[in-house]
């Protein structure tokens, strides 16, 4: 390692040499050593106020800062360079200021004075440097201090300074919108300049102003004819070598003008009409073999779609996008898809024409292009093309990246929900989706599919059949297995009986009860099945205990076996189900009887399907609301639904029950339960208030209620499970009972709690509800 | 408006950076790291556009250097590619067949050229001739001032 002699002030390192040294360092440590040594020298040099080499030292510092080393100690030096009369110093000084200083530093304001001086300098390049720095690091304070200077320079006859000043004005207005007042008079005249730089910057300024300020927008709208003329001249003018790019005159200016026209034409029919012709002209005449022409066409399309253009023009624009889609340049395809996505809802028919090309884009190598193509495909599905589109999407689903699958399946489901030509087709396709997408589908799709199957009685056997076939040999796809388990549990008897419309060519298919049970057992026992899947399976088996009477004993022993399972949920269910074979055998048939049709609210965020009388709680409904453990769901709540922990409906305002008298439900052993009522038509809200007059706290208080079949109850979580002793506090719980037939309300309640280490329980039937509750 | 521009090598070494928004050093470093990583991981078949936070990143590789521009949602990506190309043409004209080494050893000049082309995140001049003339004129002033060169001693 050879370092030059850096200790000698009279022979400091040249910038170039420093760079060479740093680059020849073989390790990071070596590089650090070189840099640190040089920085130490530079620091010394700064301290010694060395004017001669200051700019070189700052240059070196800027280089190392690019490599990631700290250079803040050079900030003050930049200011000194800027204040120096030498041009070289200023050039480096301003560069350093732009790189090392920004609005956040206090030191920043010290620059204002130098800037003011330089903005008045006789040398245009020095003024130019100042304007450049202002444009890069201007703060709100500087904007206010120097706004006038900038405005003065905007009026200068020197185009070099004029255009820079205009861009400074853009920056100032962005920082301090009120400063527009200073500039407004000067802006208009800028657009009559011939110099392209001035026109370009002026366009940028007007665009910024109009986007910020609606009054200004109205004023500048009057300039639309002028802008149209400028654009026209630009296009029609002959070859200008200075501004030409691949045969197109000043594409940068063209695009900026088109953008300004867009801002001005938005929401204004008159302005939009004025620009109609020029837009058509640009759209048709621009050369599109190279990127530069396509950039202009792209901007034109954006403008046409955003203003109030006539339909012919819009069709023209969509066709340009359609052509873009066929371009071999992927960048152009990308912007086309992006734009089509934005306009598809407004111009569905026009975009439909390009559907085939869009579908092709699903096979693109670029992930962003694929994603946009996918979204666009979904936007284009309608009742005419649903069959072909879904089969295209299924193909896509089979090969796409995992990150797409969840969105794809959800969207497919939505599309089919809206446009499916028949339920049977719908069920078939959904089964295919679940088979293809594996474990990537969202949870709500499982319950949605179940709901669809349930809704169509003629498909019950068919669905069981198809689902059985898919999981016969493969139970790895959890969502599919869940749906299959539910279906087999519900409709296994229909399936076995063969009394349903079978799929084509399968008239002779026969399944035995044994096979169905074996499959469900297999799912339940397999350790790879998720807990949720196993929950579905265990429920399904339970249902089959009545549907397949010959297998009751077998199923009972399964339940007994699972009564010892390590998983709490499975164990709880198994134990409860086991008791359905013994102590409560008489109600088993009722509990597992066929469900009425489920109504599914297809919304996310845990809004659940309406519970159904005589049903068991559905694990999928619990699972959709994020992390409800569901342990409170207990089959003794025969006609309860799962407890909603999104219990925002818990209403502590218990005072609105003046019309219906309260009722004492229970008063025993110091525990008193009072019901207060609030009624809305056929829905009765009951608030149960429990108090404890014993000297001991009541803990682990659990309240359950059941109502007859024609009623419907929802129980909300209590505010606590403890009732303080000596009536020091209350426990409140709310329930809603719906009584569509206005029958006499009866309720069975069951309580359990711990009082003074004794476990207590009460069970009783309530018949004496006030008439106003139900009449 | 261009929010920032980054030039970096295929090994991820930063050669030039220009920011038109106010950020802390730490933030700049973090953003730079993330974007360099994102761009370097792109495969050749992918488009030149990346979504990053609420910005669009437009990048193009010229020989061993990546030119990377962050623009806003309203800006025209295809035109930004032309902007990048214009800058490369300017460098090429100035240095005569520019290569990465030119930009490494003359980074300050690369900045000077850039600052005559773009100001405050917007293009200020569309004539190559005018941009280069301004830069050359200023070079001359520098040379006249200090014939021996203050930065690069001859």
TrEMBL record, chain A:
Record field: transmembrane: none
Span of domain GAE: 658-770
A cellular component annotation (GO) from this entry: AP-1 adaptor complex
One GO BP: intracellular protein transport
Pfam families recorded: Adaptin_N, Alpha_adaptinC2
Membrane topology category: Peripheral membrane protein
Subcellular location: Cytoplasmic vesicle membrane; Endomembrane system; Golgi apparatus
Claim: Membrane is one of the keywords in the record: yes
Keywords of the record: Cytoplasmic vesicle, Golgi apparatus, Membrane, Protein transport, Transport
Matches recorded under Gene3D superfamilies: 2.60.40.1230, Leucine-rich Repeat Variant (1.25.10.10)
Presence of keyword Transport: yes
Entry-linked SUPFAM superfamilies: ARM repeat, Clathrin adaptor appendage domain
Family of this protein: Belongs to the adaptor complexes large subunit family.
Name of this protein: AP-1 complex subunit gamma
Record organism: Adineta ricciae (Rotifer)
Lineage start: Eukaryota, Metazoa, Spiralia, Gnathifera, Rotifera
From TrEMBL, chain B:
Membrane-topology descriptor: Peripheral membrane protein
Location of the protein in the cell: Cytoplasmic vesicle membrane; Golgi apparatus; Membrane, Clathrin-coated pit
Pfam families hit by this protein: Clat_adaptor_s (PF01217)
CDD domains reported for this sequence: AP1_sigma (cd14831)
GO biological process: intracellular protein transport
Domain called AP complex mu/sigma subunit: residue spans: 1-139
Keywords annotated in UniProt: Coated pit, Cytoplasmic vesicle, Golgi apparatus, Membrane, Protein transport, Transport
The protein, known as: AP complex subunit sigma
Species of provenance: Adineta ricciae (Rotifer)
């Amino acid at each position: 390692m050879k370092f030059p002699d850096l200790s000698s002030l009279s022979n400091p390192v040249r910038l170039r040499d420093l760079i060479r040294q740093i680059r020849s360092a073989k390790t990071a440590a070596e590089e650090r050593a070189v840099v640190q040594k040089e920085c130490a020298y530079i620091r010394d040099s700064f301290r010694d106020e060395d004017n001669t080499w200051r700019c070189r030292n700052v240059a070196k510092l800027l280089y190392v800062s690019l490599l990631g080393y700290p250079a803040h100690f050079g900030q003050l030096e930049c200011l000194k360079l800027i204040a120096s009369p030498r041009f070289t110093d200023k050039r480096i000084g301003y560069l350093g200021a732009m790189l090392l200083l920004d609005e956040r530093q206090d030191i920043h304001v010290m620059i204002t004075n130098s800037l003011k001086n330089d903005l008045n300098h006789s040398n245009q390049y020095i003024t130019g440097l100042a304007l450049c720095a202002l444009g890069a690091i201007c703060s709100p304070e500087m904007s206010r201090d120097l706004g006038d200077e900038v405005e003065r320079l905007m009026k200068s006859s020197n185009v070099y300074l004029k255009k820079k000043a205009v861009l400074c004005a853009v920056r100032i207005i962005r920082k301090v919108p009120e400063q527009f007042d200073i500039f407004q008079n000067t802006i208009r005249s800028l657009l009559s300049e011939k110099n392209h730089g001035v026109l370009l910057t002026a366009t940028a300024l007007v665009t910024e102003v109009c986007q910020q300020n609606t009054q200004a927008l109205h004023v500048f709208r009057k300039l639309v004819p002028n802008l149209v003329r400028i654009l026209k001249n630009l296009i029609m003018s002959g070859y200008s070598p200075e501004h030409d790019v691949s045969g197109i005159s000043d594409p940068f200016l063209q695009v900026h003008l088109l953008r300004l026209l867009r801002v001005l034409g938005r929401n204004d029919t008159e302005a939009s009409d004025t620009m109609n012709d020029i837009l058509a002209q640009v759209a048709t005449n621009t050369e599109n073999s190279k990127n530069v022409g396509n950039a202009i066409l792209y901007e034109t399309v954006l403008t046409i779609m955003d203003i109030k253009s006539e339909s012919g023009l819009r069709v023209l624009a969509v066709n340009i996008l359609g052509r873009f889609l066929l371009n071999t340049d992927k960048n152009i395809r990308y912007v086309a898809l992006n734009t089509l996505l934005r306009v598809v809802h407004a111009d569905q028919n026009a975009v439909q024409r390009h559907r085939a090309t869009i579908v092709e884009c699903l096979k693109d190598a670029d992930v962003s292009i694929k994603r946009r193509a996918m979204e666009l495909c979904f936007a284009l599905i309608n009742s005419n093309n649903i069959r072909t589109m879904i089969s295209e999407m299924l193909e896509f689903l089979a090969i796409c990246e995992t990150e797409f699958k969840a969105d794809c399946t959800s969207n497919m489901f939505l599309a089919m929900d809206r446009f499916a030509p028949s339920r049977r087709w719908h069920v078939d396709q959904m089964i295919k989706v679940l088979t293809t997408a594996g474990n990537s589908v969202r949870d709500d799709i499982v319950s949605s599919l179940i709901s669809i199957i349930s809704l169509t009685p003629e498909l019950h056997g068919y669905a069981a059949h198809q689902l059985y076939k898919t999981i016969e040999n493969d139970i790895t796809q959890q969502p599919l297995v869940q749906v299959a388990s539910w279906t087999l549990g519900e409709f296994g008897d229909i399936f076995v009986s063969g009394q349903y419309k079978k799929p084509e060519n399968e008239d002779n298919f026969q399944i035995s009860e044994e096979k169905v049970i074996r499959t469900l057992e297999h799912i339940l026992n397999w350790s790879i099945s998720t807990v949720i899947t196993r929950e579905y399976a265990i429920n399904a088996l339970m249902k089959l205990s009545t549907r397949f009477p010959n297998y009751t004993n077998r199923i009972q022993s399964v339940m007994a076996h699972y009564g010892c399972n390590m998983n709490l949920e499975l164990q709880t269910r198994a134990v409860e189900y086991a008791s359905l074979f013994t102590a409560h055998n008489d109600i088993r048939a009722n509990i597992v009887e066929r469900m009425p049709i489920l109504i599914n609210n297809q919304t996310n965020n845990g809004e659940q399907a309406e519970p159904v009388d005589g049903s068991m709680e559905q694990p999928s409904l619990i699972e959709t609301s994020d992390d409800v453990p569901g342990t409170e769901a207990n089959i003794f709540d025969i006609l309860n639904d799962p407890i909603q922990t999104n219990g925002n409906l818990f209403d502590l305002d218990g005072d609105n029950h003046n019309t219906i008298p309260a009722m004492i439900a229970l008063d025993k052993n110091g525990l008193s339960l009072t019901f207060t009522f609030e009624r809305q038509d056929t829905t009765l809200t009951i608030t149960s208030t429990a108090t404890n007059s014993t000297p001991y706290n009541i803990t682990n208080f659990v309240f359950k209620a059941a109502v007859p079949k024609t009623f419907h109850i929802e129980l909300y979580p209590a505010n606590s499970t403890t009732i303080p002793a000596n009536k020091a506090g209350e426990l409140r719980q709310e329930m809603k009972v719906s009584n569509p037939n206005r029958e006499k309300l009866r309720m069975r309640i069951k309580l359990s709690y711990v009082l003074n280490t004794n476990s207590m329980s009460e069970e009783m039937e309530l018949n004496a509800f006030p008439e106003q509750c139900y009449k | 408006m261009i929010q920032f521009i980054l030039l970096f090598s295929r090994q991820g070494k930063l050669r030039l950076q220009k920011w038109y928004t106010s950020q802390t050093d730490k933030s700049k470093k973090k953003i730079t790291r993330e974007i360099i990583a994102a761009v370097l991981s792109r495969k050749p078949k992918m488009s030149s556009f990346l979504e990053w936070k609420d910005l669009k990143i437009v990048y193009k590789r010229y020989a061993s250097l990546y030119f990377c521009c962050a623009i806003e949602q309203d800006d025209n990506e295809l035109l930004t590619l032309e902007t990048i190309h214009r800058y490369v043409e300017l460098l090429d004209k100035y240095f005569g067949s520019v290569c990465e080494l030119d930009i490494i050893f003359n980074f300050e000049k690369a900045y000077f050229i850039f600052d005559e082309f773009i100001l405050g995140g917007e293009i200020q001049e569309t004539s190559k001739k005018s941009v280069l003339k301004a830069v050359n004129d200023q070079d001359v002033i520098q040379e006249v001032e200090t014939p021996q060169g203050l930065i690069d001693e001859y």
